[in-house]
Write a structure and sequence with these properties.
The complex is a heterodimer.
Chain A lengths: L1 E7 L6 H15 L3 E8 L2 E3 L4 H5 L3 E6 L14 E5 L1 H6 L1 H6 L4
Parallel strand pairs in A: 1-2, 1-4, 4-5
Antiparallel strand pairs in A: 2-3
Chain B lengths: L1 H35 L2 E2 L3 E2 L5 H30 L4 H13 L3 H21 L9 H39 L3 H17 L4 H15 L4 H23 L6 H15 L7 H6 L1 H21 L3 E2 L12 E2 L1 H22 L13
Antiparallel strand pairs in B: 1-2, 3-4
Helix pairs in contact in B: 1-2, 1-7, 2-3, 2-4, 3-4, 3-5, 4-5, 6-7, 6-8, 6-11, 7-8, 8-9, 8-11, 8-12, 11-12
Classes of the chains: A alpha/beta, B mainly alpha.
Amino acid sequence: MKILAITACPTGIAHTYMAAENLERMGKKLGHDIKVETQGAMGIENELTEKDIAGADILIIASEVSVQGRERFQSISKVLEVPVQLAIKNPAEVFNRLPH
Amino acid sequence: MRESLRHLKLYLLSGVSYVIPFVACGGILIATAIALAPMKVGTGPDFTNAPFLKLLMDIGTAAFSLVVPVLAGYIAFGMVDRPGLVPGFVGGFVASALGAGFLGGIVAGLLAGWSVMLVKKIPIPRVLRPILPILIIPVLSSLAVGSVLYFLLGNPIKELMTYLAQSLRTLGSGNQVLLGILLGAMIAFDMGGPVNKTAFFFGVAMIREGNPTVMGACAAAICIPPLGLGLATLLAPKHWSDRERESGLAALAMGVIGITEGAIPFAAADPFRVIPTIMGGGALGAAIAMLGHVGDHAPHGGLVVIPVVDHLLWYLVAIAAGTLSVALTINLLTHRRKSAPQAETV
């Protein structure tokens, strides 16, 4: 599957990036095509482009704050929202919860 | 109900995440200016012969005066996106002018978001639609937030803030220790999660209100879990696997730069031993910091904030005591654990 994800946390210096790393690693391990955008203290990095969004099946939002640019993803019907903590501590469980 | 509470938390944290660098800028510049300026007995720092320090002071003060408006503005932004910015900033400015502090800022931001939601519901003829975001929403929602603050909520919140600041300043040493224990345990409990952030943001808010000791206690507790666990792997390398020793080194580095998250790999692998241990260490360190009147003027912890810490010696004592207690306790507890299964890794 082609999966997009966004991670964000209040301080935006540690959790955001740890969650992104874990989701990416676990996604690849499970054989998915995954791209993760981080919204941390440095702003948006590894931004999800229109092209990414056009081909995507599912959007994962792992965040403790309001995500920026939510309107970009109106074309994606399947969205999974999880606490950023879950993506850090148990990324496998995040993928278990994906809607099929 | 639970859902709306979750949303409320989301909004508040969105606002706070934009505010932290402002507190850093203001806190560090002001603390530097005060620390380097010659002291005049009775009146505090004297800037008459130090124009550069005066400049630092003024720029830092400018950053601080933006904290409440930015907090309110971005809480509203988190709720309703761009239309929230105007009533949020305006409401935050009003709250600030009324002396309602960060609590006022939170209320102003929430009011701003709600008022935009309300104004959007007013039925408006199609021809007028385009002026909704540039005229109608900014004017009506700001008017609403400003009025509520001026006539209704501003003064009670100011009273509450004054009371809070006053009681913090006059806490007896017994209560100071209790507050330290509570803050330290909270900081360590989820290592950067929501409970940690609640204590942390209380400390950040208090820096702006002129009481850096709350942040001082938090700052000590912030670095104790990773430092203590890292030290444990150095003290008893045989207790730990190769991977854990590697995590230990990373944890030490993260502790120095004040990132509690360095303790997460340990806590994830063995939560029932690690979390109580680091809560104890954090509580001990924070309590000592409170007793030593340690103040921290930056919204961050660890050894990197040393230049802007008051009562530095006590700060170091607090960190050392907490770190040692974590390291020794965890090595004692994990003594018989060598054959325990490794946690699943990614």
